[in-house]
Every structure is written in C-alpha cells, then in structure tokens.
Amino acid sequence: MPDSNKFHYVVATGIIIKDRKYLITKRADWEKAFPGKWTVPGGKLDINDYVNKPKDTKEHWYNILEVLLKREIKEETSLEIENIKYLTSMTFIRPDNIPVLVISLYADYLSGDVNLSNDMTSHAWVSLEEAKDYDLIEGIYEELEMLENLFKGTKQNEWTSNSKSESEKLNEDLKL
User: Is the dihedral of CA 116, 119, 121, 127 positive or negative?
Assistant: First the structure.
C-alpha cells in the first residue's frame, strides 16, 4: 500500500523577467490556496506532462519541470519563455490538507502579450521596489530579492526571510 506521507502536489512557479521587471499575477478569489494574493505564474505537475511523450532514455523523461513551467506560463499568461533556471524550493500544506512542493524557477521572457487565464484576475510588470506595493504571497518578495542579488553578482544560495513580522520585532525589543 502506498505511503500517504509521500504524496505531494508538485508545483513549478516561474518568475518571468522582461526588461529587468518581473511579471506578477493576482490569483482569483475562488482559489483554494492564497485567494486574491499576488504571485508569480505556475502550476501543478500532471502525469500528462510526460507520460505520453517519448522517453529521453530507456526509462526516464528529462526536463520535466521546464516542460511543466512552459505549459503553465502559456496557459496562465499566453507568454513564451526561455532560459529556465532554478531559484529555490519550498513546501506548504493547503487548506484542504494536501501537501505541496513548490520548485521556484526563473526565466527570460521570449514572446507574446499577457492574456490571463480565468485563474488570474490581474497582472503587472514590476521592479523589486514596485513589488512592495502588492499583497504578495509570503516569500515571493524574498525570491525577487534573490534574483536582484544574482543580477548584481551577489551570491545568495538559499532563501532567507529579510523581513520580520511586527510580533518578532516586538519580541526582540522586549528582550533588550
């Protein structure tokens, strides 16, 4: 019998870069996870992303995250992307108790005009500074900071929280 502790949704998200700006999209209010929040496009891995395609070796399919991200970006925004690279990963448990593994990638804009799917209600191309004005899903801003650091040649291997909550700041102040 399969071990239910090993079942996760696998999601790839992509920060699309165009003219040093990042594409963010607003999730529909009816979405299960993070309704109405701003995020970057992406979606769940589906077995059809590979099982009906020829294998790259006798037993394996390669570049599945890239295939997934290209499909999701096209479905959600109508854009084409290229030069996909890994940024970070994270997990969370959805409100319906399904665990999710998110692989955060970034890519260059290749072509197309933004035309959103029904899952998204709005979009914006933003700089890092402009991103502060949006109600982003927690952690997305730090991912954008990671990319800014990469562009500046500053190496940042892992995601870190650069902003502390008000309660964390208060607790630190009380310890002084």
Answer: negative
- What's the CATH fold of domain 7-175? Nucleoside Triphosphate Pyrophosphohydrolase (3.90.79)
Q: 4, exposed or middle or buried, with CB in 10 Å at 0-12, 13-18, 19+?
A: exposed
DSSP letter at 136 equals: B
Residue 85 and residue 120 in contact, taking contact as beta carbons nearer than 8 Å: no
- CB 68 within 8 Å of CB 45: yes
Q: What is the pLDDT of residues 136-150, one digit of tens each?
A: 999 999 999 999 998
Give per-residue pLDDT as tens, 32-54. Answer: 888 999 999 999 999 998 999 99
Enumerate the domain spans of the chain: 7-175
Cα-based distances in Å from 75 to 30, 34, 110, 173, 174: 18, 19, 15, 47, 49
